[in-house]
Inverse folding.
């Protein structure tokens, strides 16, 4: 069994209990405007370019089978010529210009004019993420994000840290992207983990068919369920999809699974209105049943993903949104507390939880 | 912290180390007056002169008294071991780091009295004169260092005997041993008598030293205006009249008894690894408990006494070092390292109330000396570990954390009894010893990457073009990776042999010319055997060689195997050319070596198996080879600062390291090459068989963010426990602050393994783009510590 993943992180300590390994599956049905893992959205592999590592050796230019990597002459743009350079290569991204001193391009043909300034551009529409450029990049400035992995190989990787899970009550968390977009692969992984007595968690946005979600329930010890907002129209605006199915699934889940944690990404002036907080609180309170505890983990917004957009050649649509202040987070917790809900920050431990007001 | 402690701490921190010639003058005078006596008795007379004539110093407000020099940070010299030249004094005075002020008077005394007497007679001069050409060549090339060229062998730690017995009891033991001498059947009976007589003289000398403090305290009391201080001085006088002559009766007396013994040891010689009380919480607990129960002491008074005790350590910088010794141990720290927790002699949980009080003291004092560590057994409670980690989180590196169960296992493997093993611990940096019963001498660091360099150059030092090692073949002609390994092994065995031959000469020189009768009093079974500590009087005698740079060596071998032999993407010729030119014009090759070779520290068997191989070769080469004290040579894996010096004599290495750059330190991965998080580093490090060593050193670096909250502490505790389950010996944590992060931005290559809390997981700081780094820097600044 194979699937597409984009990362495996060890010593993950905020996505479920204890010390965990988090496996990130690639592909997501939503396009949340604040998404901090944009490389997890598409199912297919992509190239990430780390301009700060680039030594401007030029290897990548000549090997691309699709001519997707080009030198763009930007000498006409003012203020870009470095006084001490004959050839200056810069990343195309605003704010990330980086001069690489004492490097010169050595191309077999088409040697660039030494008195001009160039940028390396990856033409995303031509790039098929074949990885030819990655293989010749000596400094690791180009990475393919997303690769096909076998369940066997992943299980081996997960099992490497078993002693840490045993000590800490940790295990494995499948995240993404949306792990349920690859249901058979996920199910196979979960089953293999359960056979090995590894604690399992799945981090989902809930936008999948109930049949799919219900399939993994018996093999998942903890479900981390993301809720962004209750209003379907707003949800569409923020994520590209309406949320009826998400709310329905959570309702079903509350009756069939014994350990679900609702997580709420709090984005200032985007989903932090009192109306949204109240309806979130009321909705979660109404689920008091077998599995969903009257509890919400707040995930305060951060800008961690912003640079990844640049590396993927995309635009981050909310660059000016600030992180929520401690006061703001506190106020939301109070508000939810009044509705009879416990709250926590992140996926963290007990110390950060508060009781209902 | 009380006002008294605040003031004393402030004074200790403010005092600048300076050279005091008092000891050198007394010793020189004593040697001049001694004629035709045995060496042990000569040294006893020297010790007696020191205890009789050195300045007695009682600082304002202090409760524990006794300084090594005439005042805080007044640092004596040991011309009988290493006689500094006028030029050395100038270097000590003027160097930028670890300097010691040298007054014009001190220089004059050295010029007129000390140098004329000791030149050519000091151990340093005698040792270098005795070493063979091949030893000298290897030493000069930086293949190994020599611990005893400027400092006397020490490396031992005290057990509980001085808390049970006074020096009069020791004298009684000496008399019994003397009475049992068999002048007919034992051809060494005379030597033993001389040794025992010398020990007896030293016991008297320390008692005299303590009583001089009692006299001084009474003198001061008479002049003292403040009534409270007058009473304290009277109390100090009473205590100094009682200990160390008699066994201590109270907590205060126990601390003072240890301190006199400590000053005695570090005045007799400039022992490597200073000296240290070892399992302090265990030794003091009976006194603490009894004093509290009987209403003689409050917890706060105990805290203040401990804090005064801490300051005494901080007042004694490591004696001045020059040359290679200064490079391998560039610090003022004299490596007294307090052990807490661990097991009792019966194998039970050794943590008690005092353990926590001492952790508080470490936390509050925040002093570089004494160093501190916790001995963590599976039997110790988690709250003990968590309390220690909350101090670690503050980011100044103390306490370090040891696996007490592994320490016991190491000692048992070496043949110590179970009780002796359980009462052992670690000292210096990470060195395992049977406290009170073992002489475990570190003899020198060993440059493992230099061995690889020689294996890749047919035994010729590329730096100088000189032949150093045996001809092991031109590597361009090697047809298999195994030939590389064989060449490495031959070079390794050759230089280990040279080092050990040198060690065995130096050991005998110390045994013969520099016996240590005072230290011998304190370590079992010197009295019983009538034999000096340097001669083999201790119950256990181990000589260590410390391997440095195993990470660099492993990654170098892994890169050769991967690129040259497995993937065949690089010829040996091209690799060697790139190395010889320090990658000048070969940056693309360097980048490949750095970015696409297996690296130790990532739980990747392709590299880790080679680490285990290198380790095993080093072990096989050293382990079990006899020393001259009835014991054997063994290995441990630590560098102090020697990985910097050793790096400076190594050319470029196949892992992509530039010439002269530092090597990897301890058993830590090469700086910046561990890319898969802390669990992977620990998994890799645990593939070394730590039980075969006398200590390994693993450094890890965290940002405060990852350790935030109780959850951060709990997970760090699990991390430590897991590493110890895997058989790790030691781990210590760097928790870095915002300045370091800024430096990391300036020089990311160097800080590649810095881990930060990102979002729902953790990541390497340098993997994050500048904007994200800026955001994290902004966040970290909100953390106050």
């Amino acid at each position: 069994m194979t699937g597409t993943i984009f990362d495996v992180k060890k010593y993950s300590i905020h996505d479920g209990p204890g010390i965990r390994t988090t496996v990130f599956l690639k592909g997501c049905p939503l396009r949340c405007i604040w998404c901090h893992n944009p490389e997890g959205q598409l199912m297919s592999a992509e190239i990430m370019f780390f301009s700060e590592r680039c030594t401007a050796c030029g290897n990548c230019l000549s090997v691309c089978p699709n001519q997707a990597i080009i030198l763009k002459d930007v000498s006409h743009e003012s203020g870009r010529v470095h006084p001490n350079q004959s050839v200056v290569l810069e990343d195309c991204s605003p704010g990330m210009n980086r001069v690489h001193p004492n490097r010169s391009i050595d191309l077999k043909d088409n040697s660039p004019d030494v008195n001009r300034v160039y940028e390396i551009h990856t033409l995303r529409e031509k790039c098929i993420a074949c990885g030819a450029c990655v293989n010749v990049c000596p400094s690791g400035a180009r990475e393919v994000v997303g690769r096909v992995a076998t369940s066997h190989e992943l299980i081996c990787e997960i099992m490497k840290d078993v002693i840490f899970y045993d000590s800490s009550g940790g295990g494995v968390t499948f995240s993404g992207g949306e792990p349920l977009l690859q249901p058979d692969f996920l199910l196979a992984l979960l089953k293999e983990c359960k056979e090995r007595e590894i604690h399992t968690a799945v981090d989902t946005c809930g936008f999948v068919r109930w049949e799919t979600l219900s399939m993994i329930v018996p093999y998942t010890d903890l479900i981390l369920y993301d809720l962004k907002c209750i209003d379907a129209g707003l949800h569409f605006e923020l994520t590209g999809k309406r949320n009826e199915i998400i709310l329905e699934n959570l309702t079903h889940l509350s009756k069939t699974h014994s350990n679900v944690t609702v997580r709420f990404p709090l984005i200032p002036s985007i989903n932090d209105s009192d109306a949204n907080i109240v309806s979130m609180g009321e909705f979660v309170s109404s689920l008091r049943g077998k599995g969903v505890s009257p509890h919400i983990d707040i995930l305060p917004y951060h800008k961690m993903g912003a640079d990844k957009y640049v590396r993927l050649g995309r635009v981050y649509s909310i660059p000016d949104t600030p992180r929520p202040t401690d006061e703001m987070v506190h106020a939301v917790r109070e508000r939810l507390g009044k509705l009879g809900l416990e709250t926590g920050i992140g996926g963290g431990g007990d110390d950060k939880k508060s009781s209902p007001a | 912290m009380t006002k008294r402690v605040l003031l004393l701490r402030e004074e200790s921190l403010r005092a600048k180390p300076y050279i005091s010639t008092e000891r050198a003058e007394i010793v020189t005078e004593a040697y001049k007056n001694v004629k035709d006596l045995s060496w042990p008795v000569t040294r006893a007379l020297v010790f007696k002169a020191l205890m009789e004539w050195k300045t007695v110093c009682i600082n304002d407000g202090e409760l524990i008294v006794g300084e090594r020099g005439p005042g805080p940070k007044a640092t004596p010299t040991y011309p009988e071991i290493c006689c500094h030249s006028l030029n050395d004094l100038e270097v000590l005075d003027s160097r930028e780091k670890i300097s010691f002020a040298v007054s014009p008077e001190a220089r004059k005394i050295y010029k007129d009295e000390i140098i004329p007497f000791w030149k050519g007679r000091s151990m340093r001069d005698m040792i270098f004169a005795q070493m063979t050409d091949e030893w000298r060549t290897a030493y000069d090339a930086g293949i190994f260092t020599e611990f005893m060229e400027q400092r006397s062998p020490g490396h031992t730690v005290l057990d509980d005997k001085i808390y049970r017995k006074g020096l009069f009891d020791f004298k009684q033991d000496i008399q019994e041993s003397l009475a049992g001498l068999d002048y007919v059947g034992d051809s060494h009976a005379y030597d033993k008598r001389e040794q025992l007589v010398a020990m007896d003289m030293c016991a008297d000398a320390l008692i005299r030293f303590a009583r001089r403090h009692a006299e001084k305290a009474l003198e001061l009391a008479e002049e003292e205006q403040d009534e409270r201080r007058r009473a304290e001085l009277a109390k100090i006088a009473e205590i100094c009249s009682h200990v160390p002559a008699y066994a201590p009766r109270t907590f205060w007396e126990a601390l003072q008894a240890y301190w006199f013994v400590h000053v005695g040891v570090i005045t007799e010689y400039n022992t490597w690894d200073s000296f240290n009380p070892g399992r302090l919480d265990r030794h003091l607990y009976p006194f603490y408990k009894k004093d509290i129960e009987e209403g003689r002491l409050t917890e706060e008074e105990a805290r203040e006494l401990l804090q005064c005790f801490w300051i005494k350590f901080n007042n004694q910088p490591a004696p001045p070092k020059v040359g290679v010794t200064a490079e391998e141990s560039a610090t003022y720290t004299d490596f007294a390292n307090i052990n807490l927790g661990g097991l009792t002699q019966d194998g039970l949980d050794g943590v008690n109330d005092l353990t926590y009080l001492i952790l508080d003291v470490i936390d509050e004092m925040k002093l570089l000396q004494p160093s501190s560590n916790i001995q963590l057994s599976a039997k110790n409670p988690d709250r003990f570990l968590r309390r220690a980690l909350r101090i670690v989180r503050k980011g100044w590196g103390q306490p370090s954390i040891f696996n007490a169960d592994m320490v016991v296992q190491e000692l048992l493997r070496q043949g110590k009894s179970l009780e002796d093993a359980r009462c052992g611990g670690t000292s210096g940096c990470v060195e395992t010893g049977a406290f009170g019963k073992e002489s475990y001498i570190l003899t020198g660091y060993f440059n493992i990457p230099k061995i690889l360099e020689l294996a890749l150059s047919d035994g010729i030092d590329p730096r100088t073009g000189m032949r150093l090692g045996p001809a092991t073949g031109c590597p361009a002609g090697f047809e298999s990776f195994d030939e590389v390994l064989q060449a490495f092994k031959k070079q390794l065995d050759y230089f280990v042999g040279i080092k050990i031959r040198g060690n065995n000469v130096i050991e005998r020189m110390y045994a013969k010319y520099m016996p240590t009768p005072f230290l011998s009093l304190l370590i079992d079974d010197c009295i019983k055997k009538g034999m000096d500590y340097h001669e083999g009087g201790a119950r256990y005698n181990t000589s260590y060689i410390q391997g440095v740079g195993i990470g660099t060596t492993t990654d170098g071998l892994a890169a050769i195997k991967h690129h040259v032999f497995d993937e065949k993407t690089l010829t040996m010729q091209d690799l060697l050319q790139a190395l010889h030119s320090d990658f000048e014009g070969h940056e693309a090759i360097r980048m490949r070596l750095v970015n696409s070779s297996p690296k130790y520290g990532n739980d990747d068997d392709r590299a880790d198996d080679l680490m285990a191989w290198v380790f095993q070769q080093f072990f096989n080469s050293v382990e079990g080879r006899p020393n001259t004290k009835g014991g054997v040579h063994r290995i441990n894996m630590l560098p102090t600062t020697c990985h910097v010096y050793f790096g400076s004599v190594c050319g470029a290495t196949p892992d992509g390291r530039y010439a002269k750059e530092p090597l990897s330190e301890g058993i830590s991965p090469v700086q910046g090459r561990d890319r898969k998080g802390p669990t992977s580093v620990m998994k890799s490090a645990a593939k070394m068989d730590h039980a075969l060593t006398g200590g390994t050193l693993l450094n890890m670096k965290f940002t405060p963010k990852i350790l935030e909250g109780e959850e951060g502490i709990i997970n760090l505790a699990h991390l430590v426990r897991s590493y110890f389950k895997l058989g790790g010996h030691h781990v210590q944590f760097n928790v870095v602050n915002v300045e370091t992060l800024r430096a990391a931005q300036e020089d990311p290559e160097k800080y590649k393994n810095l881990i930060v809390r990102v979002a729902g997981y953790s990541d390497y700081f340098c993997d994050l783009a500048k904007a994200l780094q800026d955001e994290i820097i902004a966040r970290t600044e909100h953390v106050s510590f």
DSSP finds eleven helices and 14 strands in chain A.
